[in-house]
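Q: My labmate handed me this sequence with no annotations at all. I'd like to see what the chain might look like in three dimensions before we decide whether it's worth expressing. Could you predict it?
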Amino acid sequence: MGAAAPKKGNKGYPQMKLGVHIGYWGLGLTSEDQLAIVQEAERLGYDSVWTAEAYGSDAATVLGWLAGQTSTIRLGSGIFQMPGRSAAMTAMTAATIDQLSGGRMILGIGSSGPQVAEGWHGQRFAQQLQRTRDYVAVVRMALARERVAFDGPTLTLPLPNGPGKPLKLTIGPVQERIPIYLAAIGPKNTALAGEIADGWIPTLFSPEHVSHLRPLLEEGAARSGRSLERFDIAPTVNVLITDDIETARNAMRPFIALYVGGMGSRKQNFYNNLVQRYGFEAAAEQIQDLYLDGKREEAMAAIPDELIDMVSLCGPADRVRDRLAIYRDAGVGTLGITPVAFTREERLTQLRTLAELAS
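A: Here is what I predict for the chain of 359 residues:
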């Protein structure tokens, strides 16, 4: 079945939907806690739930488990690591979950980072733009149930001079076209998302800077001769709604410090580069230096309040409601939120409050 045309908001963008990120499985909450959060999000009308993977729980198993215990909420991989699966296996997994869920799969993929790709999966972190292009092409070919014969710069199927032959996926997904989202933050990867994907999953997204980001998506879309009318901008955003704004900001500091300071090396940290493009060059350098020197508390303290407010939803309800309008006006189609709370009840409260503010 094909996708319905999205309803338009005040500025001509699709109306913003809510998604909930449950992150890495088994960290802090039980399976029963996580299931309760997802089922409550479904009851509240959240459009999608997203699971993550790094080098612990895998996203596919969790989505399959949720498929049998939900009925309407869409199931997003946020994200499947490309170095951890062949393109064919990703297509097999997406088609299986789509069948199990009655057509609710959203396929989010990304290249992960050099530490995980090389240290965990044994895959060289190189030629990422071309690898992603070839990978998505094969995934789309397989999901369309074509016989997969592909000869690209980074991927050849079947392998030459061997017994392999072009194969076709033996099952079909329920959806006519499973949407593919790319996790990307660099300028070239962002343009690639506009060119080959159905959606874009940015992290540490600033709606104030969408005027610099949207042209990258449009550049990519122009390369493939299409518009962005049905393209979904789907950032992941940490949320804590409380009258104590200092407490809310402090709750955001560990995540931002980890990504800006420690996610990568001094020479290669995509998130640090992103924050610098937002205008926080000196702060980004200081946060990274402190974090990599083992001074994590000082790194967290060095994060400017302005940066926290720019990439998070935190503070009093009225303030968060105003920020939601800014995300909506920036053209965000799916706002994927992560409640920054440590118990089931606290997370449920955040889910309910945000749903009320967004309605």
